Amino acid sequence: MSSKLINRQQFEKDAVIFSDGDIGGIAFVIESGQVEISKNQNGQKLVLGVLGPNAIFGELAVLGEGPRMATATALESTVCLAIPESEIQSRMDSTDPFMRALIRILVDNLTKTSKHFFDGEDRRQST
Fold first, then answer.
1. What is the largest CA-CA distance in the chain?
2. How far is CA 104 from CA 17, 31, 61, 110, in A?
3. Which residue has the higher pLDDT, 84 or 113?
4. pLDDT tens digits, residue range 56-79?
5. Half-sphere exposure of 26 (CA within 13 A, CB side)
6. CA 80 to CA 15: how far, in whole Å?
7. In the 8-state DSSP scheme, what is residue 4?
8. Which residues, including other chains, have CB under 8 Å from residue 87's CB and lie 6 or more apart?
9. pLDDT score for 3
10. Residue 19 and residue 12: Cα distance in Å, rounded?
């Protein structure tokens, strides 16, 4: 993956990469280090996962519509490739229309399920 728009970003231990509710715009791929994904649930931190090298995070806010749904924090010195929304959109535009639609449906379904689970929101639509 090479593009002039993609750059490396280093985060020190305990640095917040993005917070729940932030506007998206960048997805990240971990080159080295570890990132904790968490959500504040009723005043308590709920750890959703710990990601290591080659994992991608922050993609839902880039592929979908809406703010970040969790907080990402570096657990140690961490280096990530930062992939801007414009780069991802450019690649999506060159993808087969069926696959593009499938990805959008999957992202929408995952977003709705997550909101329902964490926020108690029922955003289901009848089909």
1. 46
2. 25, 26, 12, 10
3. 84
4. 999 988 888 789 999 999 999 999
5. 17
6. 13
7. T
8. 3, 5, 6
9. 60
10. 16
Instruction: For residue 76, give the amino acid letter.
Output: E
Which residue's structure tokens are 């997550």?
A: 114
Q: Give the integer Cα–Cα distance in Å for 75 and 85.
A: 25
Query: Where does the chain show beta strands of DSSP type E?
Result: 7-11, 16-18, 26-32, 35-41, 44-51, 56-57, 71-74, 78-84
Write the Ramachandran bin of 37: left for phi over 0, alpha for psi from -120 to 50, otherwise beta. Answer: beta
- State both tokens at 21: 């509710």
- The closest alpha carbon to 80, from 16, 8, 15, 26, belongs to 8
Helix axes 85-93, 97-119, angle to 10 degrees: 140
CA 89 to chain centre: 15
Q: CB 32: neighbour CB atoms within 10 A?
A: 13
Closest CA to 85 of 33, 23, 16: 23
